[in-house]
Amino acid sequence: MLPPSAEALVRELTRLPGVGRRSAQRLAVHLLRVPEGDALQLATAIETARARIRPCPECYGFAEDGLCPICRDTRREDNVICVVEAPQDVDPIERSGAFRGRYHVLGGALSPLDGVDPEDLTISQLVQRVERGGIDEVIVATNPTMTGEATAAYIAGLLREHTRITRLASGLPVGGDLEFADEVTLGRALEGRRSIDA
Amino acid sequence: MRVDLLRVADLRCHVVGELRPVAGVTAIVGPNGSGKTSLLEAVHLGINGTGLRPTADSRMIRDGADELGVRIEGEAGGAPTMTRVRLTKGSRTIELDGVQVDGRTLRERWAAVVFIPDVLDLVKRGPSVRRVAMDRAIEGAWPRFEEHERAYRQTMEQRNAVLRRVRRREGTEDELDPWDRQLADHGALITEARERLIERLAPFFQERVELLGSPHAGDLRYEPSLPGDGAALLQALRERRREDIERQTTGIGPHLDDLVVELGGRDARRSASQGEQRTLVLAFLLAQAALVHETRGETPLLLLDDVLSELDRDRRTRLVELGRQHGQVLLTATGADGVDDLADLVHALEVRA
Predict the structure, then answer these.
(1) ipTM of this complex > 0.90?
(2) Which of B75, B78, B142, B177 is the most buried (most CB within 10 A)?
């Protein structure tokens, strides 16, 4: 049995995604055992980040002081927008090095059952960006889940008249084994097959 | 496949228990309340990961205990297999040959066909019980099917949420487009799977109705809400959009399918007697077992709870004989059902209260 204030700390940590009661206890005990300054650094970091991070007014990803670093970068291509669900989805695409355009962060995926409707996402802002002109392609990179697919289809319906809409291909993981692929993945991979160039 | 040993701890009335079924027909015999059905439940939990009834599985934990455990040793997929399932109020752990797995992996290894008295009115009740029966049969023969079922259900709930929203004038009709398309895709897969199921199940069913001693021929007929492919369903969803918005629910698709069970060329819903219904249900289950054998190359376990009590001697013998030819059977019986007169067919194990 922990004293009340330690218990309160455990309870707060349990509310973090992916943290169960046992991990929360371990983290709490750790925070109580390290030098006070070290523990408070975490508190300060949370406080500062919460105070300074704002949605980027252009792409709605994370930004500090106005535009985010990607929207500010003048060397990037302005005519392609890659649409993702969450700010953390930008990172893996950036690391791939295969994309040099701009981003648009929706802030989630449509899920009417959970009360996430078009107006709860930055869909109208995306439409405005496209309507301003100069966009040759919108790549919809929402997750290949039920809600991600629905969001992609909805966006495509809205923008089809204005520009070219593409969807990230889904298929077999590189280095993966055909034998272990599930039917849905394999079916998609077949649909999206391409000819081998000479 | 075959279960050689079952061990249970803290399941319903059993503090600890052990059962060693034979390869043929094992009857678990004992008075009412002695825990016969719990032993069948334990076997099902061990090879399927769930109990026999749709109620919360944690109810199977013995009063006063925190955790129940089941261990099964036997043979499945042509190799010796050991599974362990542990259940607490909030968790379920499944181990297959020492490796922790999910329920689907367990069901891809094992298979069971179950009779519980609750399914007796399969023929006469509303269509939903027959849809569930079709889907369980598909899952038994093609275990991966459960993913499509779940996807269809979730997509429809999303679509219905949009219907309510449009009705409240908070959203516009075009918000339905993306859900219609996905619903049509998943729905078409389900219709196709049920078509294929009934096509392959019907001959087995016809044969088993006869083998169970029915003077009338039995048959199965799939009655889809909308026959055809995804494009047909998508079009139908679009056409009835107005009506669906008005009623705030999706009015077409495989969630409204039915299965017609026929006896003597007539819909058994209207004409079958109690005894005939029982024969039809048992024939359906035995046909299901035959189909699992055909698609997976293995005979599933037959778990039959309290199946003998209402059958006359001739049908009892026919059923047990069919079961024995098929593979391993575990059934429960009170002494009074007369397993005695089946003594040469059945290996009886007594449970004491």
Answers:
(1) no
(2) B177
